[in-house]
Structure formats: C-alpha cells, structure tokens
Design goal:
The complex is a heterodimer.
Chain A lengths: L2 H27 L1 E2 L4 H8 L4 H32 L3 H10 L5 H24 L1
Chain B lengths: L2 E2 L12 E2 L8 E2 L1 H11 L2 H22 L4 H17 L10 H20 L20 H14 L3 H12 L4 H8 L3 H27 L2 H8 L1
Antiparallel strand pairs in B: 2-3
Helix pairs in contact in B: 1-2, 2-3, 2-4, 3-4, 4-7, 5-8, 6-7, 6-8, 7-8
The chains are: A mainly alpha, B mainly alpha.
Chain lengths: 123, 217
Amino acid sequence: MNNNVKHNLNIHRDFIDEVLKADVAEHRDAYIDDAGFTLRVMDALPVSTSMRAQLSSTKRFFIIFGMAMVAAIISTVFLSGDNLLIDASMDVATDTITPSVIALIMITLVTSVVAVSAVLGKR
Amino acid sequence: MNLNKTKPASVTGGEKGSIGNGSGGSAFDDTALISRVLLNADKNAFAELVRRHQSQLRTSLRKMTNGQLELSDDIAQETFILAWRNIQSFRFEAKFSTWLYRIAFNAWQSEVRKKHEILLDDDQMPEPEWVESESHQTGVRRDLQRAMAVLTDGERAAILQCYYNDLSHDEAAYVLDIPIGTVKTHILKAKEKLRVALHDYDAEQFGNESASEGHAA
C-alpha cells in the first residue's frame, strides 16, 4: 500500500469520525422539550404495583385467616369437649352475651391478629 | 419540533432533581427515585425519572427510527410503561438510562418485527424532521442520516449506542444483548459503510485540500 493510499484512508477515517462526532455533539446538547410527554406516559401507566401488592396481601390475609380459623375451631372443639361453638352461635343469634360468645370473639380476634402479622411479616 | 438548547436543571446530567411538593424540596438521584418507586410505587418519583430521561431516550429513538417522530415517541412511551411494569427486575447493576436503552431497543425490535419493516431506501425514508438548516454542515449530517439507513439494524444500533448514547462497548453489548466482539464488529462494518457512502460527497463537495493533494499525487 503506497503512502498516498494510506493518506487518503486516514483522511476518510477522520472525516467519518468528524461527521459522527459533530452529529453526536449536536444532538447531545439538544434537549427535546417534554411538551406533555411525561403526562402522557403517566396517564398510560397500568394499575400501580402497590395496588396489586395490596390485592395480593388481601388474598394472603384471607387464606391465612381462613386456615387459622379452621385450626382454632378444630382445637376448640377437641379441647373444650362441649358444644362451645354451637352455644356461642346460638347466643350471637339471640343477641345474648355469654362466655361462649366472648370466647368466639376472642378466637376471631386472635386469629385475625395472627393472620395480619403473618401477612405483614411476609412483606 | 421542540429542540431546545437549554436543559432544565432537573434533567441536567440525568442525575439530580427535585420532586414532591414543587417547592424545591430535597434532591434525589436516580437510585433514590427508583427506590421510592420500588418501595412505595411512588408515581411522583417515576414521573421525575421520566422527565429526567425522556429527552435522551426520545433522541436516541428518533435516530433509531430514522427520524420518525411519532413512531419514536410511541416506542419511548412503551419503554417507560415497560420500565414501570418491570422495575422490580432492575438490579442497579447498570445505569438506569442504560437499562432504559435496553428496553427501548427491545421495544423497537418488536415494533420492527410487527410491521415487517425492512431497511428503507432513500425514496421511502422520511426526511428527519430535526434537519432544519440548509447549511453546508447540516447537509453533511443529512447525508449521514441517509447513509445510516443503509446500515443493518445491528450496525446502526451499535453506532447509536456507542456514539450517540455514549455507552462503552460493554454497556452496548448489554443493551443490544449481543457479545462484545459483535458490537465491535458492527461498529467497524458500520464505519466502513459510512466511509463508502460519504466518500464521494467528501471528495466532490467538500474539496478537502488534503484529499485533493492525495489524489493529485
């Protein structure tokens, strides 16, 4: 390869770099005005992830709450050896506050607290 | 065409800005904003990220789509929506802007596949709308735009990432999801094609003295 050819190649290489860099500089300095673009994007966003997270938390709560209630009821029935739940249900139906009703409320409360704690702990 | 030369303070460098009550509250970098989005799905924080990166991303996409403004803005919007949906997968291993470029490139590829687009020839290529001046230098740039259209998608994308988005070869490989060696090959081939495409223009219209001397010798 003679010197002239090498020289020409170098010139073309420099020219391409120069044009590219000039074009890059032109557009790097340029700022495209937002002109409502951000608003358009925000309007088009899907349901927020927090809402989805809340939904899944709700589902988790009911699953854990249900399982805890079942466990509590089974335990109560087997441990108390009497008709605590039936008595309590009848008392609730007749608007009567009895120890059975209080026990049922306590079971529900404790189970709810356990379920909420479990859900919050998962997050 | 809204090409302003002055960047708002909140987007300068894409690093710092203020969000919240609009009273010039505390400044947050991208990492803090992303954390707020991750922890609280904070839409204000995400809006700040969009405001901060929209110009760079839209500029890049306009290049990628050969100046099709509507298409590039649609892809930019899609990119930010995908970023919102998938921000849980952002691992802070790359810059947020690089991660956006990656999403944008994939979105653009999907769009190309969807429309079965092929490389546009000169007659089909829409005139880039940001070419406003008829100056000599602008003419060179217009020819550069046309020359870019003859590159393959991979070559053009590599040039865009490494030159226009100022990414390293490593980062470009991440964005384009190809090996780093392929990035380098794409750039070499692209520059060779550009060299050929602009050679006549250079020799005939610029009258480069050195070139003339070289030819005369």
